[in-house]
Design a protein that fits this description.
This protein has 300 residues and is mainly β. The protein has one domain. The protein contains five helices and 19 strands. The strands form three sheets. Strands 3, 4, 8, 9, 12, 16, 17 and 18 form an eight-stranded antiparallel sheet that branches. Strands 6, 7, 10, 11, 13, 14, 15 and 19 form an eight-stranded mixed sheet that branches. Strands 1-2-5 form a three-stranded antiparallel sheet, with no helix packed on it. A hairpin with a 4-residue loop joins β1 and β2. The longest helix is centred in the middle third of the chain and has 11 residues. It is globular. The N and C termini lie far apart (62 Å).
């Protein structure tokens, strides 16, 4: 995928999503199929480095309590820790057609001018989280950047905004296990923005730990960006579907700590006239900025 810096930073490329969402050969969704396979008892009884290939039990270990040798897997311990966690995560779903192209985009700053967070869970989890933060009854919910020029929402596959709660600074959205969802970002300005997005702490383009220094999608002027899955190629994504924490994409990669949160970081475009900062200046312009003194003052 041609995403990254071009010509030593002179121009940078970001992805432009074409919407997509048409389903290609639906794959049956089953959370149990993604569980790690059982250990092979034959392979488990073999210790690497042993001359005969067989495991020699230490003399001080009794036969009744001895366990076969099992190679340590780094992610297995992390997976066990997520098996008992309640609530929802995002699984690596079926293939969806969602073609993208690359366009030049140079960031005005290396830091995003705004970030937005959406926490998601099942209804019980959202109610518990809202009680923890203080909240109200779920309603169709959108998150906004600080100046309200860009909105972020989660919708179902039919475009209906999912319900949620505003709870003391948190945006909490309710989902259902097995439900497919999309991230919809709408732009109310005539400026272009680059959008770096994460789900469960993973970048939606490369599936690795998210970082605002990575490249993202382009949000067009007065338009919207629909992100409907983890990108697999220029033409396909793996659909976002709510599932158990254990079977979430992040947990299966051994990174389940940040399950349940979606992050959006937005960048202004260098050279753009109508950046968010410029619009903020115009929005807060003072029509009478003169000296409030009643009478004329002598020159300084």
């Amino acid at each position: 995928m041609k995403v990254g810096l071009y010509a030593a930073g002179i121009a940078a490329f970001a992805l432009t999503a074409c919407g997509g969402g048409a389903l290609q050969k639906p794959v049956s969704y089953g959370g149990s199929s993604s569980a790690p396979p059982p250990a092979n008892p034959t392979a488990a009884s073999t210790a690497p480095g042993s001359p005969s290939g067989s495991y020699s039990r230490p003399s001080h270990v009794s036969t009744s309590t001895a366990r076969p040798y099992r190679p340590y897997r780094h992610t297995e311990t992390r997976r066990r820790a997520t098996r008992t966690r309640p609530g929802l995560g995002t699984v690596f779903g079926e293939n969806l057609y969602s073609r993208v192209t690359t366009q030049p985009f140079v960031r005005k700053s290396s830091r995003p001018f705004a970030t937005a967070l959406i926490h998601y869970n099942d209804s019980t989890g959202v109610s518990a989280h809202a009680a923890y933060r203080g909240g109200a009854r779920p309603i169709p919910l959108l998150a906004y950047t600080p100046r309200n020029e860009i909105s972020i929402s989660l919708t179902d596959q039919y475009g209906r905004t999912l319900p949620g709660i505003k709870a003391n600074g948190r945006t909490l959205v309710v989902g259902r296990a097995g439900q497919r969802y999309k991230i919809v970002i709408r732009n109310r300005t005539n400026g272009r923005f680059e959008v770096v997005t994460s789900v469960d702490g993973l970048d939606v383009i490369d599936g690795r730990p998210a970082d605002v220094t990575k490249r993202g999608y382009i949000l067009p002027p007065f338009g919207q960006l629909v992100i409907d899955g983890y990108r697999r190629s220029d033409a396909y994504v793996a659909a976002f579907r709510f599932g158990s924490v254990r079977n979430s994409y992040a947990a299966r990669k051994g990174r389940g700590r940040n399950v349940g949160v979606i992050g959006v970081a937005l960048f202004d475009e260098r050279g753009s006239v109508w950046t968010a900062a410029e619009l903020h200046k115009r929005d807060t312009a003072n029509p009478f900025p003169g000296d409030p003194s009643y009478y004329a003052q002598p020159p300084r």
